[in-house]
Amino acid sequence: MAGGDLKYRHLSRSSAHRQALLRNLVTSLLIHETIKTTWPKAKEAQRLAEKLITLGKKNTSASRRRAESILFQPLDHLPKLFNELRERYAKRPGGYTRVLRIEPLNKHFDQAPSAILELVDGPRDMRFAMTAKTLARERAGVEDGDADEEGTGEIRDVTARNVRKVTRFRPSGMEDLEKAVARMELKGRNEEKKDKGTREVESGGGAEGRTEG
Hints:
Layout: H1 15-32, E1 34-38, H2 39-58, H3 61-70, H4 74-88, E2 97-102, E3 114-119, H5 126-143, H6 157-167, H7 173-212
Antiparallel strand pairs: 1-3, 2-3
């Protein structure tokens, strides 16, 4: 109905082609836990992925048959859905996926709006990684005696909220976050040593040049 609520996006495809496309995207999401596609496709695939994980949490004969009809190569992927993902999202009431806007994948042609569709609380959760990186940076600033952007010298409220969000339903959430922060801190120290060594080499080379002159 014109002017009514958008029930679903046709994606410029026939019904059968559209359904096959979404099944393929959701199967890829289940395998890799993150995929890049256009924004409209990501939003539609998200709806189907949420339903699929809900079927996995129900773990009944009927839900298994329904999941088989959605996934390509279901025998390969049903064990992950009904075991690993069911356990991961056992306490999460919903919101098993996340869509993040990114720069257009095809910059030279149509520049269609693009996005990342990912499973939350997994090993490739981008928001979790970004929160760990931010927390490591802000902690380093506090340890060095530097104030943050607001001048308080403490972890910002927005970072604290993000920490609660990414760890709330994640099994071993705080433990995993502290491990990720430790990796970020180690990476930062290694990069700092590398930069320092590069500057020393460049400084030494300049001194030698002036001596020869």
